[in-house]
Amino acid sequence: MGRLVCLFLLFGLVINKEQVTVTTAASGEEQNFPTENAIKNTANSCFCKLDGVLEDCPCTAVTIDQFNSKFHPSLLKLLETDYFRYFQVDFTVPCKWGWDAQCTSPNCAVDTCKEEDLPVGINNGSEEIRNLKSEEGYLARLLTRVYEIFPFVEPFYLMLHELLASMNLVSSINPSPCSAKDPYPQYHDVAEKQFCKLDPMANPATCDYVDLLTNIEKFTGYSGAAAHRVWNTIYDELCFHPETEDKTLYLTSNTAKSMCLEKRAFYKLVSGLHSSISVHLCSKYLLEEGGGQTEPVWGRNLEEFKRRFSPETTEMEGPERLKNIYFLYLVEMRAVEKVGPLLERLEISSGDAVKDQEIVNLVQKVISELKSFPFHFDESELFKDETLENKELLELYKQNFMKISEMMDCLGCERCKVWGKLQVTGIGTALKILFTPLEEIKLTKHELVALLNALGRHSTSISELDSFRVTEV
After folding, report:
1. Is the pLDDT of residue 218 over 70?
2. Quick one: how far is CA 301 from the chain centroid?
3. Which terminus of the chain is more solvent-facing, meaning fewer CB atoms within 10 Å of its CB: N or C?
4. Which helix or strand (DSSP H or E) is residue 365 part of?
5. Which parts of 242-301 fold into alpha helices (H)?
């Protein structure tokens, strides 16, 4: 009888417990994540849709929250290193749509870096990082490195090798074709496996380096018609839309559910990006203007967060938008996990062997933690039937996402342009990775920096959601 009473008491504690507690590995602080029942019982909450297994995802939001609480500190520590904190941006490219809406707020400006002030080994954003095939040994890697530093040596080496081969002293080789060709020959359009424009590859001479740690993403005051025009064009013209027999439907989270997985995923990536940016702006909001000797005050703005994400103010769209941040995060996590073998062989050469090894160790830690996550996104579910329709749809994926990356040139706010380009490039790189066989993947350092920082931004968004969840109660 006593055991039965204990069992009922235990059951009562479990069903009434509205929060689970997770201790982060980095700080030892406790973080509270709501149980699925607690989420369901708050119908008017911004988080009311984050219950159960997320659509098109292999796990729940709670599972992702718990993993991210441990993973986020490791990722941020990696992104603070010199190798990942500098990003190249071309501020001179005109908007292809002909828009001209410059931001006049001082918060829109960013400080660029002089190349002579950059740490050693940073100014090589177009450097190619590729997955070496198993048959390529140390000598092959050494020659590749020599060619990168001294490209004029390659023709002489090939001539010497051809001469020795004609004397049967060495085996003949088939030299790889020159790779100096512009990947975007016509207005920087889609290359074979490219999903987005890369500024250092398109116009290296006009690119500036931006320190991401000193030019953080935050609310700038850039809004109104200019900002809405960019997002409206992306949603209305570059996203796929559900169709019936006689008309094309307006794109919402509800109508998107009627589309195929591929088109639905494209919308969720765009919505996840838009929502993540909104979370960042609400987290680093200008609460009080500065002036004279008074410094401006930045912080979380719960009312602005509710305006963007609550069911009442968004016709139930806001909670759905938050779900898309989780979808985007899973896609990027899977992309980084897939190229883990490439990242683990990353060569860092700053001249400081100790610091270089620290970065290598941080990279390996991040990859190890990603490998431990058991619910990665399965990209094989996308375009799995090799039909003509799917091939054409994949090409549309590339073309439309390329246009989204070019639209970042239309942002009149410099700070918005930096973080917009970085995150769009990161997502485009993730798509490129997921739809390319591992042995064929070739990435530039610019893409790698964008991918890891984009993952960092969306990891931070998920962490910030927990803070807003607590303050909303």
Report:
1. yes
2. 24
3. N
4. helix 353-371
5. 261-283
Model confidence pTM above 0.90: no
Neighbouring CB atoms inside 10 A of 367's CB total 18
How far is 199 from 374, CA to CA, in rounded Å?
Answer: 35
Report helix, strand or coil for 299.
Answer: strand
Judging by DSSP bridges, how do beta strands 19-23 and 30-34 pair with one another? antiparallel
Q: At what angle are helices 317-338 and 445-472 packed, to 10 degrees? A: 140
Q: pLDDT confidence of 291, banded at 50, 70, 90?
A: confident
Helix, coil or strand: residue 375: coil
Strand partners, 19: 34
Q: How far apart are CA 337 and CA 360, in angstroms?
A: 16
- In 3D, which of 187, 217, 218, 192 has the Cα closest to residue 203? 187
pLDDT digits (tens, 9 = 90+) for 250-276: 899 999 999 999 999 999 999 999 999
The predicted model gives 337-363 an average pLDDT of: 91
Q: Which of 269-273, 365-369, 384-388 has the lowest mean pLDDT?
A: 384-388
Neighbour-count burial for 139-165, b at 16+ CB within 10 Å, e otherwise: eeeeeeeeeeeeeeebeeeeeebeeee
User: How big is the CA angle at 167 (ends 162 and 171), to the nearest 5 degrees?
Assistant: 60
Residue the block writes with tokens 């004029």 = 152
| Band of residue 18 on the pLDDT scale cut at 50, 70, 90 | very low
**Residue type at position 267:** Y
The CA distance from 202 to 218, in Å, is 28
Exposed, middle or buried by CB within 10 Å (0-12, 13-18, 19+), for 294? Answer: exposed
